[in-house]
Amino acid sequence: MNIILNLSQSKNSIFSFDELQNIFSMSNKQVFKNKLNYLTKSWILERVTKWIYGLKWKEINKFELANKIYSPSYISFFTALYHHSIIFQYENDIYLAYKKTDTKKILDFEIKLKCLKKDILLNPSWIINNGYYSIASAERAFLDTVYLYWDIHFDNIDKLNYEKVLKLLEIYNSKSLEKKVKSYFNNK
Question: Which pLDDT belongs to residue 188?
């Protein structure tokens, strides 16, 4: 039961099968699957999706969940823009930069995967990792969004650091994107 106490005191809200197996120090997968089955039936853990578990009494962090299911990825686009107060329209869904485009319904929201080229996706510049999930900085989310959606309205573009935006443009290696981005700032 000491392990359960440690889990409940953890700042994580989501655990993968492998993480739990390490925490419980059980090398035999079948024996551990039986243990997980017991823990879910005894109302300690809940299966959120395949190979992902949460504590029954702890609220699940949607950002952590999305990053845990899809890796490598980071929260970006409209989710990160709202988080950084660049747009004001709240959306319950989570937008992730990922290696392919897809949508997955989970719990009461959708995870919307948006494909970015590998060079962009795997570049860590201005991706904030707090140990639980990774999220694009305001400037990185802005560029990701313009890169994929092109004509978008931003409510609070003044919060962006223009110098960072220009520096980050190098990642995208696109003259047309550079021209489009500069047009957003020329209209101020």
Answer: 53
Q: How far apart are CA 172 and CA 163, in angstroms?
A: 15
SS3 132: coil
Q: Token pair 């949508």 is at which residue?
A: 103
Torsion angles phi and psi, residue 93, rounded to 5: -75, 160
> How many independent structural domains does the chain possess?
2
Residues 180 and 129 in one domain: yes
What tokens appear for 40 in the block?
């879910």
> pLDDT digit string (tens) for 134-145?
999 999 999 999
154 shares a domain with 81: yes
End-to-end Cα separation, the chain, in angstroms:
59
Alpha carbon separation from 33 to 29, 36, 54, 158, 164 (Å, rounded): 6, 5, 15, 51, 47
Please write the tens of the pLDDT for every residue from 43-70.
Answer: 889 999 999 999 888 899 999 999 999 9
